[in-house]
Fold each of these.
Amino acid sequence: MFKRLPGDQARDLVTTTPDTAVVFRPAVVTTPAILTLIILAGRALAGLVRMTWRHPVAVLAVVAPGVLTFLYGWQTALLLTAPVPVGLVAWALTDRESFVRLVGRRLQAWWRLIWIYRRHWQPVMIVSGLGRHIRGRDYLPRLGKVTCTPWADLVTVRILKGQAVKDWADRLDHLAQGFGATSCRVTLSRAGWLTLTFPRHDPLSVPITALPPPDVATVDTIEVGKQEDGQPWLVDQLLTVEEAADVLHTSVRFIRRLISQRRIEFVKVGRHVRIRESALVAFVVAGTVAPLTSDDITGRAA
């Protein structure tokens, strides 16, 4: 016996057997093939324009030989394009540091963006809980730019509305394991954007020999080690009163008077008094008198 159903749902019944659950035939919307082709063509065109905008040199290096071959033949194309790789090789051999900074790091960043981050982005976001799957649609944070430094990858991410930095900080282990890194760090670059740092190796694993102290007192900073990005770690020197007087080319009595009158910043190390080199620089800058300009001289004469 049919049970009265609202509207026209009775026509969608697949079975009416009493001991079988009622199953409804789902509605299927067939998209025209021409519309699907137009959407795919539009996406391909947008991707081509985006790639040309982001990587003009790489696109030109790929397209130029084909265009020259089509217009002038392969001999002319080879003659015109051969100096480019030869020049790059010569550049890499003569000045490796600038070649790596301007060309090598950019190519490395592009390759890691395509092969590591973009390829694994969706599964890592969904499994870690940073993405949402709602009604058959994935809502994912947007992957931005990838920058390669000598020791790490810096990945910019636009987070979803309603997410906080703490949501990402609680899933650093998931992100590190998902993208094949040993660790991960997250910092807020600007509103709605995060910077993920994935170290590729530890630059601090190699011990650094201690540097000898300078023989002459100067206002230069001392290099005591290396930072993670390979830059030197500089600290201020703590100068004695005699060394400070030697740097400023004054008497020791003058330096002691500055300390007693609190006219210069100093540090108390137990019963001893030390002066940072940055304090000496600040004292010199504060006492610097700018020279008179021609306008000042003219105005004073008038």
Amino acid sequence: MNNFAFFGSDDLSFESLKNLVLSKSVALKLVVVKNKQKNLLKDPIFLFCQKNKIFFLNFEKNKTFWNDILKIFKEKSITSIFCCSFGAIFPLKVINFVKDTFNLHPSFLPRWKGPSPIVYSIRHDPISAVCIIKIAKEVDSGDIIKMEPFLIDIKDNYLSVLSKIKEIVHKNLSKWINEYYQNNFSLIKQDKSKETISKMITFSKRKINFEKNVLDVYNFIRSFPKSDLPYFCFKNNLFFIDECNFFETKETILPKTIILSKNQLKIYCLNGFINILKIQKEGKKILNIKSFLNGKLIFKNYDQTQ
């Protein structure tokens, strides 16, 4: 049996945690989360640890944190680290302390290393993957232990892609860990020449540029989670697009142009338009487009987004 420390922070982390403990090779001794919520009783990982009597720790960004972690590692005889969406870099002294390290990364490595792999995969690729890799000095650059590819459909969005990833984790993670400890694996080095980097999604990077090709705009919009919807500006107001589809046309209407009909709000791009299905004005709730257009008239035909 191998004494594990788990590091995570989000919904995918929780799915990984639940399936990691199913492995007959794992004795989970410590869970560390990077939780911004003040109320831990709303954190499913914390509640899981309470229920299963697993030592729980909240990440603190201070000078002593990693030294404190090493003390706990020694006390609990930690031999292995498993990380998923933790959002902090492990010091070498922590990596080198344990025998085995595992990092679950949701992209077709070496494509889309970094903090936003799902977002960038949806924008750019028809195929992605769930990878288990070694933790290395450089972020997401460790040798690949296991990889399971999956397709990204043109109708997929962030939520549906995340569901595909969670399903792969649910079906395979405990099996993969068991196979590792049975020496049923081959390490694959990542090809640095094929490396691409995903960047942190800041508020400014969520603004939609309707002057691009319509397919690129559609891929941009569908790549965001509901917690961070993309937006456009109109008369100093922000409007967030929750759901849309797109149409390619040969019409010569200028990009950024708004066209309205009874139950339709179109914004033109290069080579087509985005047809908005669900929208949210800043500070208001998300509405389907029919309800939105039945309210106070905000747009008129041939208005331009900012």
Amino acid sequence: MNAGIIGQAVGLFAVTNIDDIVILALFFAQGAAARTDRDRPGHPRRGRRLRPRPWLGAGAALLASTFG
């Protein structure tokens, strides 16, 4: 194998991991802000809500990568 290709693969892997960390941090920050607003007394949707959409999307991506 060519050392240049391996170096590029390692660099790309590292960059995508850093990108994922940034995106997850933004999602968690957005969720924390929404939860803080929702926990305020008198808010109509007080408490936790379960959303199946992220699980459906992850399942669809898993199926597409498995059978695609």
Amino acid sequence: MKFKVVAIAAATLAVAALTASPAGAATAGHPYDGKDPYTAKCSSGSYAVRSASTRAGTIKLMWSPRCGTNWTEIWVSPRKAGSIWVKRSGGKYGYAVERFGYKAGRSHHWGNMVYANNTCAWGSASVGLPQQGDVQVLDTTKACG
């Protein structure tokens, strides 16, 4: 009977750990993967390596020489919600990705980082949600280095 209780407790802990993981945890391979660039202090000295603007807003692929990471920042209508992605070459499917959902209320949003030193990275974002009826996409070109 003691074995059953321990097995059930272990299974419960495993499920709790899986459901508590952030969205990008599956691609995490470096300590900076999936981390907020501002909280991790990687934004200091960072700069945009790619950018694009459309009527939906502006997107920038950011690079941190200090941390060797990329992330995506956008400036959009504060009335819109959506998602931000940053992708890095490599991984099981040819690239690794971090996705970050954002809510309406602010115009400046950023996603989490991927470690991308000596590889390619690119960013994208959806502006608006399907249920809002008007989804637009912002993309950067690849930056390799």
